[in-house]
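Hi there. Long-time user, first ticket. I'm pasting a complex I've been working with (about 684 residues overall). I'd like to know whether the download I got is complete or cut off, because the file seemed smaller than I expected. Thanks.
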Amino acid sequence: MGKTRSAPTLNDVAKAAGVSTATVSRCLNSPERVVESTRKRVMQAVESLGYTPNFAARVMAANRSFTIGAIIPTMDNAIFARGLQEFQDQLRESGYTLLVSSSAYDPEVEREQIRTLVARGADGLLLIGYARDAEIYNYLEQHQIPSLVAWSYDPRVQRPSVGFSNTAAMGELARKVILTGHRQIAMISGKTKGNDRAQSRVEGVRLAMTENSLDPDTLTLIETTYEIEKGAEALRKLMNLSPRPTVVICGNDVLAAGALREARNLGIQVPEQLSITGFDDIELAEIVSPSLTTVHVPHREMGRKAAQELVEMVEGRSEGRSVCIDTRMVVRHSLAGPPDLP
Amino acid sequence: MGKTRSAPTLNDVAKAAGVSTATVSRCLNSPERVVESTRKRVMQAVESLGYTPNFAARVMAANRSFTIGAIIPTMDNAIFARGLQEFQDQLRESGYTLLVSSSAYDPEVEREQIRTLVARGADGLLLIGYARDAEIYNYLEQHQIPSLVAWSYDPRVQRPSVGFSNTAAMGELARKVILTGHRQIAMISGKTKGNDRAQSRVEGVRLAMTENSLDPDTLTLIETTYEIEKGAEALRKLMNLSPRPTVVICGNDVLAAGALREARNLGIQVPEQLSITGFDDIELAEIVSPSLTTVHVPHREMGRKAAQELVEMVEGRSEGRSVCIDTRMVVRHSLAGPPDLP
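Hi, the file is complete. Here it is re-exported in full:
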């Protein structure tokens, strides 16, 4: 009984040539982008193994730049970094290069960047959140550029997305806060204008209040930009209120780290005198003291699945599906019951 | 005496149309990239003010994509984020869009990304550090793509860069460590292979030791990737040595944060029983407890100056100059004298 000799795969060629599969597909599809010594090695491996790339795939490939664009709101903190690195690594496995642009949460800048990436020949785009002018989505449709939304998931929206329900995730945390006994609730949120993630997180807190017979209008809300310094500033304002809130729910871990730092500066014990919570579970959340009770967002998983789906869309194998990623609450040390009344 | 009526500027047009100067230059140079309503508003302002863009500048502009590429080693932490955001903001002032790629510290990936950005029409490139194959620099020269190095500055290297001397910056900190009384010195460094910043920081420590009559070969050196978890791991190893180092100099703040966390887990008091230092002065450095003695790198200033220089190069007004940015030591609470001998 002899071994069945199966057709050589891309992987076999990559191994024989000592390069990545991404490099092999590049050699086959855009040889001008591969340095000559590598190209020779790969083509020798292709020949000696008798590798034949799928013909239909090659015809389709001919029109592609093997470049994917992503536009994120900011590079200035770790929120998007981790998911994006995984997104890129996964794209690279499929032979695509990622180009990233950052809009600084400005819709006009985002629009320019989308046009730049399309003008530069991007095969597909990753966008953060749903909220943008219909005109932009129309533009992408006219240019036949597949786009995928990440970081948001809402089954009511008819648009492919790989994300999570910000409302449900923050709602779970807020219910825990209320169950712990808090009634004087404040929230430091990112700016909600044009940011559906921030809007949904505020909505999650309000829904949890309503469910527990608290008037959602009693929520003290400060909106600010996602910076440590801004979280600190907002906390200072909240501590000047009377009565003081007993818990500050923060729109993300960066704001919570700032709030925590300011509480320390003001000599307020967390969580004995004041509870503070975060969102995202970036590395910071575990390092600060006390460590943050927060919502864990599986950024890497989201990045990986978004890359897989977007490649399927770009290569015409999917019309665009939506994937809901599970988040979970992480209980650490920054949340406790409210202090006893004086 | 009447007012002199000077020629209207780009700025005047922008104000009249209620848009950014970047949008005005885009309207003039790549009108297809601007949404119609905005374009109309801008062209009305151009007409009513009688604005005439400099003709020579427009001819040169015709060959440009107004896109700049930057390739950074990683998006996965804050080290490059801040400088890059400022780099982008400054580019935007001049009408350029930034596209970023991350090489994951892999020279083969970086090479692919450089070729992709050139193929996508980038007018110029920002690269981190000097260390890469001559072949890449030749390729860029052949394609007449100006490139600027950032994060490194070495007057011996004939290549335009906006950066700082990693050797001098780390040397200053190491001298302070030695003056404080430490003799058992360990260092947790980033991987030095292909990373001139990491190499120079190790060199800075060794030079400071030599200057102070300490044998640089007695430096205990662990190389690892720039991750919190890896900093923690490395500290664990160092604490198993006998004699134990009395100070751990870390190649950056991320490694230092990990080392600090692990020291806490092991019940080792910092700085009473062990001193730990960082590098970069990212926000983390001030938030961890005790706060980190580190080297402050003015990332925003570096980003801004790099953008200004690269635009000058792309627009043919500079052959490429080098700028040395000043760093400074920041003394906080993680460094003290060595513990008394038993």
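A couple of notes from our side: The radius of gyration of chain B is 24 Å. Chain B has three domains: 10-61, 67-164+298-327, 166-296.
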